[in-house]
Amino acid sequence: MPTAPAADQVRLLAVQEFDLRLQQARHRRDSLPVLATIAALEGEGGELGDHIVALSTDAGDIRREVTKAEDDVQNVRARAERDRAKLDSGNGSAKDLQALQSEVVALAKRQGDLEDVELDAMERLEAADEILATARARALEIEAALAVAVTERDADFATIDAEIAGLAAERAAAAAGIDAGLAALYERLRASHGGVGAAVLKGNQCQGCHMNVNPGDLARMQAASADDVLRCEECDRILVRAV
Ligand SMILES: [Zn+2]
Q1: How far is the CA of 13 from the centre of ligand 1 (A)?
Q2: Ligand 1 centre from 29 Cα, in Å?
Q3: Do the strands 230-231 and 205-206 form a parallel or antiparallel pair, or are they unpaired?
Q4: Predicted confidence (pLDDT) per residue in 3-56, tens digit
Q5: Distance from residue 62's CA to the centre of ligand 1 (Å)
Q6: CA 219 / ligand 1 centre spacing (Å)
Q7: Which domains does the chain have, with CATH numbers?
Q8: What is the pTM of this model?
Q9: How close is the Cα of 35 to the center of ligand 1, in Å?
Q10: What percent of the chain has pLDDT over 90?
Q11: Measured in angstroms, how far is the CA atom of residue 53 from the centroid of ligand 1?
Q12: CA pair distance 208, 199, nearest whole angstrom
């Protein structure tokens, strides 16, 4: 049976207490509700960013349609004006003037059709711009909410990190000088036993697993030297006798 000074075994319980508090503080740091908020906002912001790129492309395409429709209307209008000026001048044969007259009528019809195309494109552009503006407004909201959440997270981190630093310093002081073999055994057991490597024997109960030690083992433990390092038969942890 390995041995370590009884006083070191007792000090191990204080180290264990600090280790548990450190573990809890780290868990609290990793599971801050604000971290889930940040992840959700970042997810939504990313998706929205992609959506905005697609919407911008659509709006740009429609804007080009509007420009083309405007140009088409303008060209037809200019052509009709030229025709009307020729008609007003009265120059040319009766046949030419008749042809011009027909073209002016055809151009008026064509202009009407093109203006319908232009109007349709303008309406679609207005709708696309509105959707884009809504998406951009939401993106700004997300950005603002994210900034608030990040500030909250950083403040929480700072508080918990200070707490962790304080506990780590206290833990180091509590662990200083403890028998190296005992400390190594404790670390090994702590790593494989859910963060608890040493527990006190209270009455006949191991406070690590809360199982009762059978009378035979208890008698053997009570008879053991104070420096003997005892282990719980149930959970295998270092069992420190009452302090
Ligand atoms: Zn136990």
Answers
A1: 14
A2: 29
A3: unpaired
A4: 999 999 999 999 999 999 999 999 999 999 999 999 999 999 999 999 999 999
A5: 73
A6: 16
A7: 6-26+179-241 (no CATH), 32-158 (1.10.287.1700)
A8: 0.77
A9: 36
A10: 97
A11: 60
A12: 5
